Amino acid sequence: MRRLADRVLEAGDLESLSRLLAGSLPQAAGVASATLLFWDRKLETFQATSGDETHAASLRPEENVVAEPKARYLIADGQLVETPGATGDATLVPLMARSGLVGMIVLGPRRGRAGTPFLPGEARRISDLAKRAALSIENQLYQSELIASERMAALGTMAGMLAHDFRGPMTVIRGYAETLLVGGLSEADLRERAELITRMIDRLERMTSETLDFARGSHSLVRRPMPLPTLLAELAEGLMAELPGLGVARHFEVPTQIWAAFDIDKLRRALGNIAANARDAMGGKGTIHLKALVAQDRLVLELADEGPGVPEGIRERVFEPFITHGKKGGTGLGLAVSRRFVEDHGGTIELLPEGPGARFRITLPLAQAPAAAPVAGI
Questions:
Q1: pTM of the full structure
Q2: Is the CB of residue 271 less than 8 Å from the CB of residue 335?
Q3: Between the CA of residue 217 and those of 158, 192, 208, what are the distances in Å?
Q4: pLDDT by residue (tens digit) across 112-142?
């Protein structure tokens, strides 16, 4: 019985514990059978395990799914108690943990013994085993609840991330859809607006997939080679298209012939989250300065706004999830997502000293060293 009590604490999960006790306890205790009942507080039912079979069984008085065990004896705190007037020859052993009742063990009749089924020493050993079983069950239930809680938190993070990142493309779609209702547009203008709306919907689909990858811990990238000046121009134009009221002052100094291979959508989202925060900090409109240069085989991007800057109290935690300040409807996920996507590229992102607004620097490795070429300003 002592060896079995030691093994109880080593059970890795409830299923292993069930098999161990249902299989080994009858021999150790000298009884015909042993049944484990786990109490589910939410459903008010017991999970019954006997031998190799496991099933949910309701023991509520108003339901007659299974009969309550006919127990004549009870072992609690090392004492064997006989219930006056009770019929049957089973013995109940409550499993009491710190949080209360977590289940019970139902022992069948004692083999080869009439009268009192257990001696005082045997009752104490069974009670000690029950305490360890209760502790093991409570720990495993707590672990299961913690895992479920973390999954719900991850689901909430994913939903919040989608809501946060969908705002930009949805604003563009709504804006251009409203212009289609005005009328008087040429066929070329109608086609241009329809194509842009289609591109934004495609982006929403990709963003959904990327967010699911984020929640699963995936770090996959879909790199598209593109001339670096073209990439920078596309990023700047995308910021202005998605964030009405925001102007982008470009300060690009990159060689014209360099090609870069980045995941354009993720990079756009990384910059877009910073720019969206900047626009909000500037009261819904203003200018953000986007600087780009190549240094030591790396693309260096700096974004600076003309707002009040990042409050001192959150500067060290600005890239953590759910950190936000004075932003109505903000989720605090934007900069956390930006850091994740930058790091997926093998790059770094940092908050620079105020100057006077918020200033961020993103450093991304290029696929290969740029060849010598004249510098072009865009």
A1: 0.49
A2: no
A3: 11, 37, 14
A4: 777 788 888 988 999 889 888 888 888 887 8
